[in-house]
Amino acid sequence: MSEAQTLELNSMQLPSEEEEEEETNGEPGNDVWGRLFPVAKGFVQQDLVKDEYVFGRGEDCDYSFEQSGGKANTHFLAFSKIHFRLYREIDKLNPKKYVVFVEDRSSNGTFVGGEKIGKNKTRVLNSDDEISLALKTNKVFIFHDRGSSESRTDALPPVCSLSLCGDVSLSLSLLCLHRSSGNTTPSPNYWEEGHVER
């Protein structure tokens, strides 16, 4: 990267936390407590504002795979009309915190970290868990809990593909993902730690 490109990057203004909240696809006036970052073609980021969401092919779902572009996924026909439900409840041991759950409502399976949940069964969803649909290898989302101090943004893959901008677009993606956790700068050793190949 040339000095001019580095200077251009350094002088860019990222949106403030307030501006970021205004651009969310959640309900206005509410805090975003979590995010689902897409890791598969045809899916979009979902900011979590409400306490419960239903995901599936059905048009009545809070997150419709058909309306979000999920048809581009090669396994689209294996997704159920109501595939899974994601919700949070107040932690009984610590009423100041929430616990997030995912319930499998599908015929072909919902997987968290490669483990099948099982139809009509529920599992705790932790920050940085990967959600796969229909097959354990069909990773679709990575869950990020904004209230978790244990969240590792380095576990999130870059969302931009390398293009003419190369490292520039990739660096901006990593910075935005890191910023979503409340930090303002990426890990200085991100490249050296072997998380992403250049």
Automatic annotation (TrEMBL):
Signal sequence range: none
Domain FHA: 53-117
GO terms, molecular function: kinase activity
Pfam families: FHA
Keyword list, A-Z: Kinase, Transferase
Transferase among keywords: yes
Record field: compositional bias (Polar residues): 1-14
Regions of compositional bias (Acidic residues) in chain numbering: 16-25
Region Disordered, residue ranges: 1-31
Protein name: Serine/threonine-protein kinase Chk2
